[in-house]
Amino acid sequence: MSRHLLNQGAVKMNKMEVIIVGSGIAALKTAIEASATKHVMLITKSKLRHSNSYLAQGGVAVAMSKEDTPISHREDTIQAGRYYNNATAVEALVQTAPVAISELIASGMEFDRNSEGHLMLGMEGAHSERRILHSHGDATGKYIIEHLLRELALSKVEVMEDTAVVELIMGDDASCIGVKIVNHEGHLQTMCGEHIVLATGGCGSLFQFTSNASTVSGDGIALALKAGARIRDMEFIQFHPTLLYCNGKTQGLVSEAVRGEGAKLVTESGKAIMKDVHALADLAPRHIVAQTIYSYIERGENVYLDISMISNFRERFPTVAALCLKNGIHLEEGKIPVAPGNHFLMGGIETDGKGRTSVEGLYAVGEVACTGVHGANRLASNSLLEGLVFGSTLGRYLQQAPQRVLPQEKKTLKKTSPGLITLPELADIQKHLMHYAGIVRNAKDLGRLKAWLESFQIDCLLELACENASIHELAKVNAIIVSWLIAESALARQESRGGHFRSDYPIENDAVWLDTSIILDRHEVIKRLKGSVVYEFIKA
After folding, report:
1. Beta sheet of 231-232, edge-to-edge order
2. Between the CA of residue 74 and those of 128, 247, 432, 455, 530, what are the distances in Å?
């Protein structure tokens, strides 16, 4: 691919009814449902199987046992989210979950069952009941995606792999009317669409330590911001407590289900680090476990998962066992070295209950969207469920959507060229974000990060036309924009809540912050970059 997209020549393509960007569980479910009545194009910048959903070792949370209820699931979700959740979204999630899973099973999806043929229900952190369904032990995401891909193959959905969406096309009425893409041959094309759906995942790969697929880099959030959509709650990032940690690097996820089966977090000397920290000990909410592990590592003490009590570990957790083997960890020793890393974004593109954003014609679903369902911290195994439930909701809404007559494309003057700005390497962005806006934050560090990011002229980067940059440069631009959104939001929220921990404001402050949201759109970002706003807040 040549350096500049402009040299490829833009080719206009036919109009589609629905264009979906992404390939995870939310994208596939939306596509399958919408295709019942609509002509759907699904675009992914990598391969269909390269997504966080495919990597998901954990299961799907659903209240299906006699001892459990959607009400209990709701309460656990809200408690994990530190009561910041959107109650309507939570209710929709937990009440729809049993129906959604039953439909999935009826369509042929197989979850693990015991010798008597009953569904096996696992326990994970912050759950009050055993309600986690798994498939093939710790490969749930993979098998759900494979199931959905079989359904996709039977649908009329068209698929474009190795195709990056580099810009949203706006109409002269400020609505979204299409996408600009760079295909696998490096050609720039435009594709018009009545309904544009972003299902691009979160921003995990922007952090040095992460469980996320390398493609999950916040592109959808940056695209939406540039298009004028509202972005909210970007300070709320979940750091998974247990990533495999070898030679100073995280190598992949060690599922929370391992602790659900009895594994304990210990130091080199065998001290159980969660014993006196929380009533649920090793199954405490993720932000508490992550912060505790981080505090030990900061003091120079390694932390391990003691798995010696799990007799059939290789059979129960084949994915984790293979990961350990690949990285030279001997399971016979009974200890897996772990460290926390970025895992999930609770914030993102603000949407309503149908998946609609603040921009007409633009939708978001899955991790890239912020429905408020997760509040300040996602309950374990609610993410695959979110993709299934809200993907189905959006897909069925689009089934019934009337034909949309698209306006004329908005003509804009293309200003910035990245050649005038020296952009940092992605590795530098990852290190800065992890160090200054990671598990433990404070005003001094966040201020340093914000100043560093603003040195790259974010206001100019927001005006950058895709024709003026290479794919690699656009990835850096998007990374800078999304990193700034995280830093600005984290600096503004002067309390600790859920995944957002401020060492200089370590206490939850319900009086100010329980119903206060930090919402940023393009106009607000420009105001803040110019220094004309000093942390104004919006009541949710």
Report:
1. 369-370, 348-350, 231-232, 519-520
2. 11, 40, 36, 43, 42
The pLDDT tens digits for 503-538 are 999 999 999 999 999 999 999 999 999 884 444 444
Q: Looking at 28-37, 253-262, 445-454, which range is the least confident one? A: 253-262
If one counts every other C-beta atom within 10 angstroms of the C-beta of residue 21, the result is 27
Q: List all residues 6 or more positions away from 381 whose beta carbon is below 8 Å from its beta carbon.
A: 58, 59, 60, 61, 124, 127, 132
**pLDDT given at position 420:** 64
- Please state, in angstroms and rounded to a whole number, the distance separating the CA atoms of residues 85 and 77: 8
Is residue 286 annotated as part of the catalytic site, yes or no?
yes
- Percentage of the chain beyond pLDDT 70 is 94
Looking at residue 33, its amino acid is E
Quickly list DSSP for 439-462: SSB-HHHHHHHHHHHHTT-HHHHT
Interatomic CA distance for residues 486 and 79, integer angstroms: 23
C-alpha 237/C-alpha 535 separation (Å) is 20
For the cut 60, the answer to whether the pLDDT of residue 9 exceeds it is no
Strand-by-strand arrangement of the 237-246 sheet: 249-253, 237-246, 335-345, 303-306, 264-267
| Residue 8, pLDDT above cutoff 60 | no
Across 373-390, b (16+ Cβ under 10 Å) vs e yields bbbbbbbbbbbbbbbbbb
Instruction: Write down the pLDDT at residue 308.
Output: 96
Q: Please tell me the distance from the alpha carbon of residue 490 to that of residue 511, in angstroms, as a whole number.
A: 18
What 3-state class would DSSP assign to 363?
A: strand
DSSP 137-168: TT-HHHHHHHHHHHHHHHS--EEE-S-EEEEE
- Smallest CA-to-CA distance from 533 within 139, 341, 524 is with 524
Nearest to 342 by CA among 490, 200, 236: 236
Lowest mean pLDDT of 22-26, 196-200, 237-241, name the range.
Answer: 237-241
Set 74, 230, 232, 286: catalytic member: 286
Distance from C-alpha of 45 to C-alpha of 47, rounded to nearest angstrom: 7
| Host H or E run for residue 238 | strand 237-246
CA-to-CA dists, residue 490 to 97, 166, 205, angstroms:
32, 27, 18
What pTM, to 2 d.p., does this model score? 0.91
The 3 state secondary structure assigned to 4-25 is CHHHHCCEEEEEEEEEEECCCH
Which of these ranges, 17-21, 343-347, 526-530, has the smallest mean pLDDT? 526-530
Predicted confidence at residue 257, as pLDDT, reads 87
Mean pLDDT, all residues of the chain: 92
pLDDT at 2 over 60: no
Sequence-distant (≥ 6) Cβ neighbours of residue 62 within 8 angstroms: 73, 97, 98, 100, 101, 131, 133, 385
C-alpha to C-alpha distance for 496 and 42, rounded to whole angstroms: 39
Q: Which residues of 136-173 are buried (b: 16+ CB within 10 A; e: fewer)?
A: ebbbbbbbbbebbbebbeebebebbbebbbbbbbbbee
Q: How far is it, in rounded angstroms, from Cα 96 to Cα 107?
A: 17
